[in-house]
Structure formats: C-alpha cells, structure tokens
C-alpha cells in the first residue's frame, strides 16, 4: 500500500513539475531527481537512439546530473553497454535485473512502435515497486523525449546552418580579401619593375608592401659577405618608411633563421613574441620573417609585425607573404644582375677610354718620333721630302720666292777620326740643336738630310732673307767654338760648316729635285772655295 502511495506521489509531482518545465533537459532532469527522491535511486541514466547508436543523454549519480546534447557515446560506460540495452528492451516492456544489492530498472521508451530511448534506474534491492508501475512514465517520457529530441535536433540543425552560413560568409570575405590582395601584389610587382634603381625598388617594396597588404611594419635586410647583413628600408615605431642603410650586424642565430634560411622555407611566423626596433624591444605581437632567395642561395629577409595596431594575421596572409617574398626576391635578383652589368659596362667603358687615351698618346708620340731624326731630334729627311714638295707647289701657285740652304759640317770625317764616332755624334747633336733654334718663321723647316748634312727650307723668303739665314748659321756655329785639333790648311781650329744657298720662284718647268741639285752645287762651291762660308747660286 505504501508503495502505491509512493507511486501516486511520484506521478503527481512529475505531472506538476513537467507542466512548468521548458525543454527536454528540464523534463529529463526532473524525472531523475524525482526518482531519486521518491525511491532512493542511486544511479540513473537516460540513453537515446541517436544516429543509429545508443548514446547517453543524461547521467545522474551521487556527483550530480550530467545532461549532454548532442548525446555522447556510451563506449566509456562499462556499467551499461549497448548490448545490455538491446537485450533489455527486446520485449518492449519494463523489466528488472538484479546486480548485487541493486535492482536495475530498464524502462524502454517507445514511440509509434519504435524504441527511441531507455531509462535505466538503479534502485535499492528492497524496492517493492513492480516494474510495470513505470509503464505510464515510460509512455509519458517517450512522448516528451520524441518531441524534445525533434525540436532540439531542428534547433541544432538551424544553429548548425547558421554557423555554416557564418563560416561561409567569413571564408567568402577572406577569399575576397585574398583576391584583392593578389591584385595588390600584382600592382606592387609592377611598381617594383618600374623603380629606377635598387634602392628605389626596396623603398617601394617596403612602403607599398605595408599599404597594400595591410601590415603595420616591414623592413628588408640583405645579406652581405662574412655572415653579415645590412638594413635597406624599414618602418619606424610610428609607421613611417625610413632609410635603414645605417644598420649592419651579424646574421642573428635566432629561431626564424633556422626556420627559414636553414630549412630553405619562405615564411616563419611567431605569435605572442617581443617586437623590436633597432634591436630594442618596443612591443609584443606576431612577427613574420620571409626569406629572400636567389635560387638556392638566401639573399636576405623581410621582417613584418603588428606593432602599431595589434591586428591579427589572417590565414590568407601566409600565402600572400610567401608570394610577396617571392616577388621581392625576383626583383632583387634582377636588379642585382642589372646593376652589376651596368657596373661592368662602366668599368669596361672606363678601361676603353683609358686605353684609347693611352693609344692616342702613344700614337702621338710615334707620330712625333717618326718625324724626328733619332740622333739629333730635329726633323728627318722624310719630313723634309714631304715639306719641300708641298711648299714648292704652294709657292708655284702663289708665285712666291722659295729659298733653300744646305749646310754641311766641314771635314767631319777627320773629326770622327780624331775624336771617335761617339764624339762625332755629340758634335752633330750640338750643331743640329744650334741651327734648329735659329729660324722660327712659320713654314720654315730645319731638318737633318743625312750624315753631317742639314737643310733649311725657307718658303716665301727671298734671296736676302736666305743670305741672312746663311750668315746667321755660319756665325752661330763659329760661336760654338767647338775644338777641332787637326791641321787643315784653310781652317781655324774650330768646327765650321759650309752652306749652299739658292732662291727661286718655282715654275712648272722646274722641280724640287732640280732645285735641290742647284743648292747642292752652291754647297759644293762653298766647299771648293775653302769652306766655313756660304755660296749662292
Ligand atoms: N759620328 C758620325 N759621323 C757621321 C755620321 N754620319 C756621317 N758621318 C761621317 O761624316 C763623314 C763625312 O765625310 P765626307 O763626306 O768625306 O766629308 P768631310 O770629311 O766632312 O769633308 P768635307 O765635307 O769635304 O768637308 C763620314 O766620315 C761619315 O762617316 C753620324 O751620324 N755620326
């Protein structure tokens, strides 16, 4: 009787409380609590057939009630397995099983001939309640469970769809951002291509890289020799792009060096890390390092961070930063090749200019040498032969006087015999330089004709001028007082010269050769008359 009363209170409370309950969770929790309070239940568990397997929706023990939707697997539950449940509900009716001092009530929850759940309640063994007494509860709970699960599933699906939509929206947004930024990368690449030098290219990379990729700070470092690296352009702590060529240091042995350079990777990112400016910590955030490569050789890196805004790095940034690093690497390599080619060309041009100047100097020197007599360094016979031809024809055209003097050292054979050939050479040099200085009028030419014989060509100069020149030459040599200590009848004991002189206005009937012979005859005459004199024909 007592058990009947207990049962009716149990049902009464359930019906009252369920009336105020909102949602499946409350219904389930109230049911188990009532079981516990009314019948001293030790453990109760509500399993549901969910997605073709048995799952735990609620578990109540002395620690409390655990309700979980979506329901969780019963795998970990060794007390009750799926096989136990399947067996217990096979006749669709409530039943007891005994486990030591526990009477376990298995209450199949059936809806439209389908078992949709099972309430398992561990009662004390002395419980008098017949298991059929709970059939009504099973019917009521099955109905609540059916409706509750359905609405929960719908709600869940709705939520799932909403969150899927939100994810889709986010991913579409990210996709759009990525597309926009890929377009930006293309624009950056174009600007880098148009930059007119390596420096302006690096400045553009930093400045545009930040703007277009929405990054707070960026700096580009290039590797130099001996494991060192130097700055190029970077960002100050206010976000301005600044020249950092002053910066030089050893390549630091840090995590990103190992990650990028040693592993031949493009990108290394660290979150929640100290951020630096000029090697001093200035903040905290993420920092990314992008390696720059020339094929397999690292040439530098780009450093970026979020010092100013603390903006998080998006997923698409990983791809963008790699692409950016790739583009900048390409431009650096191209620029370096171009600039070394320009340098090489400049060096070549410089060398060609130097060699050309040197060649011109040598040619000029050769030109002079080819015109000079090697011993006396006055004009040689080749120059005289050319000059007499030119001047002869000029004088002929303009009907101008034309004078020629042939000067010959007297008794020079004896000089050589007396003093030796070397002294003879020296004597010839002194005579030549003395005579060469005398005549400076334009067009005139003094040359060594050969041996101890010199010629003085005086185009445009008449008979008197020629005689003046001859006298002056004789006197100049006499004044030298070059000793000559060998006895010859007609001479004082100094070196002298004899001169043949002639002047004429050239005509087509004459020739330089004939004229020369005439002067030579005059010289012969001067020699015959006793030397140290001039003779005119
Ligand atoms: N040391 C020296 N002697 C030269 C050079 N060229 C010619 N001679 C010499 O000049 C001498 C010219 O001698 P000759 O033609 O016989 O006439 P000369 O002894 O001067 O007598 P005259 O002309 O008749 O007064 C020769 O002995 C040549 O060897 C030269 O470059 N150096």
TrEMBL record:
InterPro entries: Diguanylate_Cyclase, GAF-like_dom_sf, GGDEF_dom, Nucleotide_cyclase, Rev_trsase/Diguanyl_cyclase. It holds the Pfam family GGDEF. Residues 400-537 form the GGDEF domain. Keywords: Coiled coil. GO terms for molecular function: diguanylate cyclase activity. PROSITE patterns: GGDEF (PS50887). One of its GO terms (cellular component) is plasma membrane. Residues 334-365 form a coiled coil. Its EC number is 2.7.7.65. One of its GO terms (biological process) is cell adhesion involved in single-species biofilm formation. SMART domains: GGDEF. Its cofactor is Mg(2+). It is an enzyme of class 2 (transferase). It catalyses: 2 GTP = 3',3'-c-di-GMP + 2 diphosphate. This is diguanylate cyclase. It comes from Photobacterium lipolyticum. The lineage of its organism: Bacteria, Pseudomonadati, Pseudomonadota, Gammaproteobacteria, Vibrionales.
């Amino acid at each position: 009787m007592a058990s009947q009363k207990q049962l009716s209170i149990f049902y009464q409370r359930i019906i009252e409380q369920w009336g105020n309950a909102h949602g499946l969770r409350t219904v389930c929790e109230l049911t188990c609590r009532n079981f516990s309070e009314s019948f001293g239940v030790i453990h109760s568990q509500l399993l549901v057939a969910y997605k073709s397997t048995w799952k735990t929706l609620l578990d109540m023990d002395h620690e409390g009630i655990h309700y979980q939707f979506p329901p969780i697997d019963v795998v970990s539950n060794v007390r009750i397995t799926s096989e136990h449940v399947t067996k217990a509900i096979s006749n669709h009716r409530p039943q007891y099983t005994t486990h030591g001092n526990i009477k376990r009530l298995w209450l199949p929850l059936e809806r439209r001939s389908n078992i949709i759940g099972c309430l398992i309640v561990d009662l004390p063994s002395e419980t008098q309640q017949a298991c059929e007494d709970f059939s009504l509860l099973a019917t009521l709970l099955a109905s609540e469970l059916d409706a509750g699960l359905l609405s929960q599933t719908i709600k869940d699906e709705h939520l799932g769809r909403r969150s899927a939509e939100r994810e889709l929206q986010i991913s579409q947004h990210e996709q759009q951002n990525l597309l926009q930024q890929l377009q930006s990368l293309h624009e950056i690449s174009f600007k880098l291509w148009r930059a007119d030098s390596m420096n302006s290219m690096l400045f553009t990379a930093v400045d545009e890289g930040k703007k277009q990729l929405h990054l707070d700070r960026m700096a580009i470092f290039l590797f130099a020799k001996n494991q060192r690296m130097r700055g190029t352009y970077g960002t100050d702590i206010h976000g301005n792009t600044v020249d950092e060529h002053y910066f030089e240091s050893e390549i630091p042995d840090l995590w990103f060096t190992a990650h990028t350079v040693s592993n031949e990777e493009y990108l290394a990112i660290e979150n929640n890390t100290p951020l630096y400016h000029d090697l001093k910590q200035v903040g905290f955030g993420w920092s990314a390092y992008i390696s720059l490569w020339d094929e397999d050789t690292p040439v530098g890196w780009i450093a970026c961070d979020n010092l100013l805004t603390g903006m998080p790095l998006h997923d698409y940034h990983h791809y963008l930063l790699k692409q950016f690093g790739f583009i900048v690497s390409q431009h650096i390599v191209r620029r370096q090749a171009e600039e070394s080619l320009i340098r090489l060309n400049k060096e070549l041009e410089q060398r060609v200019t130097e060699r050309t100047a040197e060649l011109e100097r040598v040619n000029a020197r050769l030109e002079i040498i080819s015109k000079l007599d090697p011993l006396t360094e006055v004009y040689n016979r080749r120059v005289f032969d050319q000059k007499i031809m030119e001047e002869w024809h000029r004088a002929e055209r303009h009907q101008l006087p034309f004078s020629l003097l042939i000067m010959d050292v007297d008794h020079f054979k004896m000089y050589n015999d007396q003093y030796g050939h070397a002294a003879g050479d020296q004597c010839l040099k002194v005579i030549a330089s003395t005579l060469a200085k005398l005549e400076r009028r334009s067009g005139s030419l003094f040359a060594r004709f050969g041996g101890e014989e010199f010629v003085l060509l005086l185009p445009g100069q008449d008979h008197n001028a020629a005689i003046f020149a001859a006298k002056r030459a004789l006197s100049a040599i006499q004044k030298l007082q070059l000793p000559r200590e060998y006895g010859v009848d007609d001479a004082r004991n100094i070196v002298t010269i004899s001169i043949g002189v002639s002047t004429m206005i050239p005509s087509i009937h004459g020739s330089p050769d004939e004229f020369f012979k005439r002067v030579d005859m005059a010289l012969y005459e001067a020699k015959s008359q006793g030397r140290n004199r001039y003779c005119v024909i």
